[in-house]
Each structure stands twice: as C-alpha cells, then as structure tokens.
Amino acid sequence: MVLLGLNFAELFPQPPDFILSDSVPSSATILARVHSSLNDSIAHADRILDHLQASALLMHWYYRQGRLLEGHYQLVATSRLVYWRTLRT
C-alpha cells in the first residue's frame, strides 16, 4: 500500500512549501521489505489470502512503474498459487 501511495503522491502537484519527510523510506527499500514479507507470508498457511492481496498490489505497482516483465511474473506466480490452492481443496 505504501508503494502505491508513494506512486500516487508523485502524480499530483504538491504545494511549493511541501517537503517530504526524510524519514520516508525510498521505493527500493520498501520494495525489498515487500518481497521479504511476501516470502514470510507464504511460509504460513493461514496467511495465503494476505499473500494473494499483497501480490496483486505489487503486480499493479510494477505495471504502473512500467516494469512489465516483473509485473507479468508476479501475475503468473499469483495465478499459479490460486490454481494450486484450488486443486488442493
């Protein structure tokens, strides 16, 4: 969610006196944390829905950034997980 928020904040003009706080991490830092959290969430069977939602948001962020290959990879990985979960139930 933070990645998308940063993306949308860049789209809208800010007042001249608006300064983004230095405590806001960069997109690269947040992206690394998202990937780490996704790997952690897939390890726990009770967080599958959270993993799918986060993957969909990450896929959307990749597409908005023009990183089509990574977005497509995220889409395929998420689709495979949904298909796998459907076969197991």
Question: What would your notes on this structure say?
Answer:
The protein is mainly alpha-helical. The chain has a domain at about 45-89. The chain is about 70% helix and about 0% strand. The mean pLDDT is about 80.
Task: Give the ordered list of helices and strands.
Answer: HHHH
Look at the structure and give the mean pLDDT: 79
Distance N terminus to C terminus?
30 Å
- The helix count comes to 4
The biggest sheet, with number of strands, parallel, antiparallel or mixed sense and barrel status, is:
none
Radius of gyration, taken over Cα atoms and rounded to an integer in Å: 16 Å
Shape: elongated
Helix content: over 70%
Summarize, please.
The protein is mainly alpha-helical and 89 residues long. The chain has helices at 2-11, 27-42, 48-64, 68-88. It has a domain at 45-89.
Tags for this model:
single chain, mainly alpha, 89 residues
List the topology elements.
Blueprint: H1 2-11, H2 27-42, H3 48-64, H4 68-88
